[in-house]
Amino acid sequence: MPDAILDDISHRRYNPLRGSWILVSPHRTKRPWQGQQEAATQTTLPKYDESCYLCPGNKRAQGDTNPNYKSTFVFVNDYSAVKEDQAEYKQTEDNTSLSSLLLKAEPVTGKCYVVTFSPKHNLTLADLQPSEIVPVIETWTQLYTAHLSPKSPLAQLAGATTLAPSSHQDNVSRPSAQYRYMQIFENKGAAMGCSNPHPHGQIWTTTGLPEEPAAELEQLIKYRREQGGVNLLEDYAKLEAEKEERVVFKNKTFLAVCPWWAVWPFEVMIIARQHKRALVDFDDEERKDLAEAISDVTRRYDNLFETHFPYSMGLHQAPLEGANAEIEASHFHIHFYPPLLRSATVRKFLVGYELMAEPQRDITPEQAAARLRNCGGELYRNKLQ
């Protein structure tokens, strides 16, 4: 265990994955709370909602009609944040001018998708069995495969280990350009900005490498170089498996932990225990293990405060296109960033010191992991039926 005194004193913890620090203030959990509280989550959604633009057979906002799908469904986002075609832009200022130095901009093109997890409107990943999550993982893998650069060492592997790219729409699997990165993510709950409760996630594929995965990749490359080819997150997973104090769940392929450096109160990271660069590195059994890990973490979240636990979840893996050093240093992992702190209605706010100085958390990751370990088992709302 960490020194017991760390449960009581303010201290900083280092995040080797970001090269940053976080302030931990465990004594602050004793302060009274008279601030904003979230509304309790509705749990009585119908299996089918005729007004939902994601339910099977319904019309979407732009007029297209969803097929009567039985598992997952993929379509190009009707309101994409980035698009494949747009007006050309190039800065024209003299390279020696202050404007060229301080007012930089570059165009970004890409493709955005929506992936429904289930045809049933009233389910979440926490409600699904691992076998029902496997098709979601296969869909992610197919889309990642379809966008891989043919020059990537992963492209040859992808052809041998994954299903051929498929979709309900022809334009899903045929990008018009080679993109640099694919960010797969889910926002669950109104507290995380989700505008539709139907179980779904998004995929944004862009020409640039976004800030968060870029910062992580820089640290992963640095660690691999300095440690003679050893991978940072493989070492970290081994260390956490030995110590067990921050482990929430584990199986043969994956480890779910509240990271030593976690910012959010009940933040969890699912890490591949062996060096896996991307989704295409997993075989059928390993995809089943990933589905089990996702199912377990999301179910524990809902059981913790007996509510539909909000979070933002995102996959980090190898870029679609990049140098061999970038591909080989990449290590597949999933971040869960949930905002709730004390109960189903009291959330953590990243404001003030967190915005102006550095992130801060109230409970320690060890305390959070212990609470999540204690709320496994059957999903709480199944017991109420």
From TrEMBL:
It is an enzyme of class 2 (transferase). Its cofactor is Zn(2+); Fe cation. Residues 217-375 form the Galactose-1-phosphate uridyl transferase C-terminal domain. Zn(2+) binds at C52, C55, H121, H198. Coiled coil: none annotated. UDP-alpha-D-glucose binds at residues 28-31, 61, 77-78, 187, 193-195, 202, 348-349, 353-354, 360. Its EC number is 2.7.7.12. One of its GO terms (molecular function) is UDP-glucose:hexose-1-phosphate uridylyltransferase activity. Binds 1 zinc ion per subunit. Binds 1 Fe cation per subunit. Fe cation binds at E216, H316, H333, H335. The active site is at H200 (tele-ump-histidine intermediate). One of its GO terms (cellular component) is cytoplasm. Residues 8-210 form the Galactose-1-phosphate uridyl transferase N-terminal domain. GO terms for biological process: galactose catabolic process via UDP-galactose, Leloir pathway. InterPro entries: GalP_UDPtransf1, GalP_UDPtransf1_His-AS, GalP_Utransf_C, GalP_Utransf_N, HIT-like_sf. The keyword Cytoplasm does not apply. It comes from the Eukaryota. Keywords: Carbohydrate metabolism, Galactose metabolism, Iron, Metal-binding, Nucleotidyltransferase, Transferase, Zinc. Gene3D superfamilies: HIT-like. Pathway: Carbohydrate metabolism; galactose metabolism. PROSITE patterns: GAL_P_UDP_TRANSF_I. It catalyses: alpha-D-galactose 1-phosphate + UDP-alpha-D-glucose = alpha-D-glucose 1-phosphate + UDP-alpha-D-galactose. Homodimer. Belongs to the galactose-1-phosphate uridylyltransferase type 1 family. This is Galactose-1-phosphate uridylyltransferase. It comes from Lepraria neglecta. The gene is GAL7.
